[in-house]
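In response to the reviewer comment on reproducibility (Comment 2.3), we provide here a single inverse folding case reported in full, input and output, so that an independent group could reproduce the run without further information from us. The structure tokens appear first.
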């Protein structure tokens, strides 16, 4: 059973930084992508960044390009999301997910999800 456990969320002021971690375990076979999604109440969950676990190639949505960096530490089975220059609109519950992907930033193709970690950015 694949388990993803996020950590690192918190409250910061605008312009601040946070680093989220996603610890993965229970894999029998590696999934192609691990991604970070976020969701605010009343809105759909949206992808912000993903990494190809085989090539380490990252992909970012426009709203976070230049501010967020996704990376992986294969030895630790951990994916990170470094978030810099945070804005109030980045406030959301952040989720780590793994799967074959397909239509990122949609959730389609992501079969495994963590429980989420809250990020709150105040102005």
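Designed residues, in position order:
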């Amino acid at each position: 059973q694949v388990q993803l456990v996020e950590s690192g969320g918190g409250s910061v002021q605008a312009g601040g930084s946070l680093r989220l971690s996603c610890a993965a375990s229970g894999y029998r076979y590696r999934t192609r992508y691990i991604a970070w999604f976020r969701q605010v109440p009343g809105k759909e969950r949206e992808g912000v960044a993903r990494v190809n676990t085989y090539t380490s190639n990252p992909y970012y949505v426009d709203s976070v390009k230049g501010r967020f960096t996704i990376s992986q530490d294969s030895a630790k089975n951990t994916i990170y999301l470094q978030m810099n220059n945070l804005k109030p609109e980045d406030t959301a519950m952040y989720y780590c997910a793994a799967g074959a992907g397909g239509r990122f930033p949609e959730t389609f193709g992501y079969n495994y999800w963590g429980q989420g970690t809250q990020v709150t950015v105040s102005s």
